[in-house]
Amino acid sequence: MVTAPLIIGTGDAEAASPSPPSPDPVATPPVAGLHLQFGADASSEMVVSWHTLEPVRNPRVVLGRLDGKFEQTVEAKATSYTDAKSGQVVYAYHAKLGQLQPDFPYLYGAMHEGAAPEFATFRSAPRGRAPFTFTSFGDQATLTLGKKYVPPAGVTIPNPPYVNDNLGSPAAADTTLGVERLQPLFHLLNGDLCYANMAEDRVRTWWDF
């Protein structure tokens, strides 16, 4: 997983039009599904993304150095899509960070009004030829127990347990921890990511992944 950058002079970052605030501040959705992706130039560009299930106000990313001093705020552009199976509208936010220093560690925080910010770190890619570590795999799934077990015909269970509804297992979390211990520059996800297509709640499965 990637973590946060320091942005100096990101004047070309696109500002997002503020979305309507949640009707109840107590019910403001959290920053969920936080992830990073390199831009066209991995040594100087990074995109911070997250999503919510309700529109939020003032989505943004603060960027700074590892000493905790934030030097830039970049507004996130809001988009949305509708899940075809459930009809659930998902709101996605993308903050484009630019003019980063090559091979440099950054601290960032993703946030929107009324929700606790999520902080993390990342390192920009080196420029030119340089050694680096990366990881790669597929078929990770999730460990979420989101489906109530239905026993075979004729079998009665007083309190049916919840089971995984998308081929997941506890090893899904172990895999993530293993990748983080290696501290790769980036991770490649190779197909069959979380089996959301067969989950009862596809949006929740992507959220968990």
Task: Summarize the structure in words.
The chain is mostly beta strands and 209 residues long. It is 9% helix and 31% strand. It is built from two helices and twelve strands; from the N terminus they run E-E-E-E-E-E-E-E-E-E-E-H-E-H. The protein has a four-stranded antiparallel sheet, covered by helices on one side. A four-stranded antiparallel sheet has the order 4-3-7-8, with no helix packed on it. It has a two-stranded parallel ribbon with strand order 9-12. Strand 1 and strand 2 form a beta hairpin. It is globular. The termini are close together. 26% of the residues are buried. The model is unreliable at 1-23 (pLDDT under 50).
Order of helices and strands: EEEEEEEEEEEHEH
Structural class: mainly beta
- Lateral arrangement of strands in the main beta sheet: 1-2-6-5
Fraction in beta strands:
25-35%
SS summary, helix count: 2
Radius of gyration: 19 Å
The total beta strand count reads 12
Distance between the termini: 12 Å
Rounded mean pLDDT score? 86
Largest sheet: 4 strands, antiparallel
Which residues form runs of ≥5 with pLDDT under 50?
Answer: 1-23
Question: Percent helix among the residues?
Answer: under 10%
**Shape designation:** globular
List keywords for this structure.
single chain; 209 residues; mainly beta; four-stranded antiparallel sheet; disordered N terminus
